[in-house]
Amino acid sequence: MALDLLVLVLFHLPCIADRASFASVCRHWRSAVAHLSSKEAPPAQIPWLVFPSPAIGSAVTTVFCLLSGATHRIRLPADLAGAHLCGSHPGGWLAAAAHVPGGGNSMAANLFSREKVPLPSEQQLSRPGSLCPPAIHLEGAMQMLCQMEEDVLIRAITFSAAPSAAGCVAAAITCGRRPGIASYCLEIDGHGTHRWTVPKSVVVYGIEDVVYFEGGVVPGFHFINNREDISVARTSNIRTLHWFWSKVQGEEDDVFSTLPDSVYISRYLVVSRGRLLMVRRYFTWSGSDVRQTLLFRVFECQIKLLHHHGFEIYSWVELEGLDGRALFLGRGCSRACELPQNNGIKEGSIYFIDDVGCNESLKMQDSSRFNCMDMGVYSMQEPESPSLTAATWRPDSCSSLFGAHEIVACIKHQGELEIKLFENLKELVAYVEDRTVEVEIKGTIQRFMSEPSSKGPPAIWFFH
């Protein structure tokens, strides 16, 4: 009887951290966890949101669990204290880059096994001209024919496999006066080059995200730029990346081409069900460096290989829904999760963090000047009509992490389109008044409450 009661309690603890704490209480509670694990599938692998350690030199930080709506305090490996978290990999891996004034070390670390794999610490970009620094070199050029151009900050890192796996390659998006890309072959035996490699003949501008994708005609790291072109770095030879460039062919976006100049677009790449997805994030950006996300749109990549010419043609096809999935967006660490029934995460949800800012040097050199406030969840599903008639729409299902819903509406008037947020349907009707307009409700958006928001580098999605 006691075991049945304990199992009943466990049913209300979907978070893996809560179940681990439950099991650590005593032998009887631990046996209840083992009994339940043998009877049911493990909880859905929904990622945690991990924030960098808030204090210089401190390894203690905060983790948010979306399944339970609870916060947890965890201790990062000491080498990550104060470091900028810039990537993750399934299985408990985090990637970090050292920076001033926070400190920390550049490495990939596993929070469960505590295994560590060093990454190059040098953060300077090499260009032809004089001597290359020891930690970064220009691919295909002699070391004496490089020059130091400027400091480089690592914006995002992604991996071709688990960082401890043989032959794993890391790809990074760098930022500075000339944002670019770099790669590094992880050698856990200590015999690697320990430096970032910058491709010699590749001209990259406006790179916004990177993901490792094996489903394309050319498996490898897929980069997307602000023109939505795809470039692929093949990793068949781990010492040298072979580059392939693809121009994306897509229909003209007539509807959204009339957005005002105050609305910006940022792009993410996500691998899901063997397909490559692109997510557009529409947001406003005020002069005070405050962002407000308005809308998300999801596209699936269609790939066609031209055999006679030897290159690929990419095209983007918009998806109306996510079909049992939720997306978690972050530079170099975006993931799509399949959702079992009754797991607390709504189908068609897109969780986002505040990582659209390009001025990474501002965040890293003076973290207190960067407000990490534009975080939350967007729902691609239209809200139910009865809920919209309420004066204030705050469903009972709202987690303590989230504020009230806002309705996302696209309003077209005299050929001009605007994206507006409304608290309820009455507010939308009052805004439209008696004008002749086209109105389409795209979904809803919720912000994280002020508690998880912070001043400092953005959080990262962590996949256990």
UniProtKB/TrEMBL annotation:
It comes from Panicum hallii var. hallii. Keywords: Signal. Residues 3-38 form the F-box domain. CDD domains: F-box_SF. The lineage of its organism: Eukaryota, Viridiplantae, Streptophyta, Embryophyta, Tracheophyta. The keyword Signal applies. InterPro entries: F-box_dom, KIB1-4_b-propeller. The keyword Signal applies. Residues 1-17 form the signal peptide. Residues 69-379 form the KIB1-4 beta-propeller domain. Pfam families: Beta-prop_KIB1-4 (PF03478), F-box (PF00646). This is Uncharacterized protein.
